[in-house]
C-alpha cells in the first residue's frame, strides 16, 4: 500500500520538503505493535522525503502499569489522572521508558532519533494548574524551549518528546500530550500538527463513521463544541488544534492511528482520511 501512495505523492513531497510536522501518538494504540509499526514507518517515510518530524508521545497504559508495579492504584477524576508527588515521578519514569523505546524503534529503521526528556534537557517548562490542589502535580505549559529540538532538526535527527514538563521547583508535572504537541508545534511555527487518535476524526455523529467531517474551520468547530456535537475526549483534541492554529501553525489534523499508513494517506492524497482544521 505504501508504495502505491508514494507513487502519486510527488507534488506533496515537493510542497512539504523542509517543513516541520509535529505528530502526536498515544492512547491504547501504543500497546498495539502492528499499529505502532505502521505509524513509525510513515514517520520515517516523511523524514526520508525531506520533511522535518517532531514526534510527541503519550503513554497512559505504561503509566498505569508502572503505578501498579509500585503498589499505587491509578485514580481518575473527569478523565484526568490524580497526580500526587509520587505519581508525578512515576509518570516521568514511565514516559521516559516509552520515549527510549520509540527512539530505539526509529533508530532500527535506519534513521537517527534522540530523546527529548525535560528532566535531562529542559524543553517543556511547566507550572501547576491554577485550579488544582497543592499536592496535585497536573500542570500547564509555561513555555517551550526549542533550542535542542532546533539543533536536532538541523542535523536531520528526529526529536522524540516526552510530554512531562518541569517546573521552577524542579518537579515533574503531568502535561496533556495533545496540549504539549500543540504548544511545541506553535513554538516551532510548524506546517502541520497531526494528532493520531483511535477514531476517524471529528464526526457529526460519533457512532457513525460515515458522518466524518473532513474539513472544518475554527469557527465551525467551536460552534459544534457549543452544540455538543463534538464532545468527550474529542474536545481537548479539537481545542489543541485550534490553539496551534491561533499561534501560527498552518493546519491541524485529527486522524485515526488504527488505519494502516494513515499519516501518508492524510498528507499525500487529495482526499485524506481524517479531519483537517483550518483558520
Shape: globular
Strand order of the largest sheet: 5-8-2-1-11-13-14-12
By CATH, the superfamily comes out as Acetylglutamate kinase-like
What is the makeup of the main sheet? 8 strands, mixed
> What is the C-alpha radius of gyration, as a whole number of Å?
18 Å
Care to give the gist of this entry?
This protein is of the alpha/beta class and 279 residues long. It has helices at 2-7, 10-16, 33-48, 60-69, 85-107, 147-154, 177-188, 218-226, 234-246, 262-267, and strands at residues 20-25, 52-57, 76-77, 80-81, 113-116, 124-128, 139-144, 158-161, 164-166, 172-174, 192-197, 215-217, 251-256, 275-278.
Polypeptide structure, described:
The chain has one domain: Carbamate kinase (3-Layer(aba) Sandwich), CATH 3.40.1160. The strands form four sheets. The chain has an eight-stranded mixed beta sheet, sandwiched between helices. A two-stranded antiparallel ribbon has the order 3-4. A two-stranded antiparallel sheet has the order 6-7. It is of the alpha/beta class and 279 residues long. It is globular. The protein has helices at 2-7, 10-16, 33-48, 60-69, 85-107, 147-154, 177-188, 218-226, 234-246, 262-267; strands spanning 20-25, 52-57, 76-77, 80-81, 113-116, 124-128, 139-144, 158-161, 164-166, 172-174, 192-197, 215-217, 251-256, 275-278. It has ten helices and 14 strands. Helix content is 39%, strand content 22%. Strand 9 and strand 10 form a beta hairpin. It starts with a helix and ends with a strand. The model has no long low-confidence stretch (mean pLDDT 92). The longest helix is centred in the middle third of the chain and has 23 residues, at 85-107.
Amino acid at each position: 500500500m505504501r508504495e502505491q501512495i508514494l507513487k502519486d505523492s510527488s507534488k506533496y513531497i515537493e510542497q512539504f520538503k523542509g517543513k516541520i510536522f509535529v505528530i502526536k501518538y498515544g492512547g491504547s494504540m501504543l500497546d498495539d505493535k502492528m499499529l505502532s509499526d505502521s505509524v513509525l514507518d510513515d514517520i520515517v517515510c516523511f523524514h526520508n522525503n525531506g520533511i522535518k518530524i517532531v514526534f510527541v508521545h503519550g503513554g497512559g497504559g505504561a503509566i498505569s502499569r508502572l503505578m501498579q508495579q509500585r503498589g499505587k492504584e491509578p485514580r481518575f477524576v473527569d478523565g484526568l489522572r490524580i497526580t500526587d508527588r509520587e505519581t508525578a515521578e512515576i509518570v516521568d519514569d514511565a514516559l521516559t521508558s516509552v520515549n527510549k523505546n520509540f527512539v530505539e524503534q526509529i533508530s532500527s529503521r535506519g534513521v537517527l532519533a534522540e530523546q527529548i526528556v525535560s528532566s535531562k534537557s529542559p524543553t517543556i517548562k511547566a507550572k501547576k494548574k491554577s485550579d488544582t490542589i497543592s499536592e496535585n502535580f497536573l500542570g500547564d505549559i509555561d513555555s517551550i524551549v526549542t533550542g535542542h529540538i532546533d539543533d536536532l532538526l538541523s542535523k536531520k535527527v528526529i526529536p522524540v518528546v516526552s510530554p512531562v514538563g518541569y517546573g521552577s521547583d524542579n518537579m515533574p508535572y503531568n502535561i496533556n500530550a495533545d496540549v504539549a504537541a500543540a504548544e511545541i508545534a506553535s513554538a516551532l511555527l510548524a506546517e502541520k500538527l497531526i494528532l493520531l487518535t483511535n477514531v476517524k476524526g471529528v464526526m457529526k455523529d460519533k457512532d457513525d463513521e460515515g458522518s466524518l467531517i473532513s474539513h472544518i474551520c475554527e469557527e465551525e468547530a467551536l460552534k459544534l463544541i457549543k452544540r455538543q456535537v463534538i464532545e468527550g475526549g474529542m474536545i481537548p483534541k479539537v481545542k489543541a488544534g485550534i490553539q496551534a492554529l491561533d499561534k501560527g501553525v498552518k493546519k491541524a489534523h485529527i486522524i485515526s492511528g488504527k488505519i494502516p499508513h494513515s499519516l501518508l494517506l492524510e498528507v499525500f492524497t487529495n482526499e485524506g482520511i481524517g479531519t483537517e482544521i483550518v483558520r
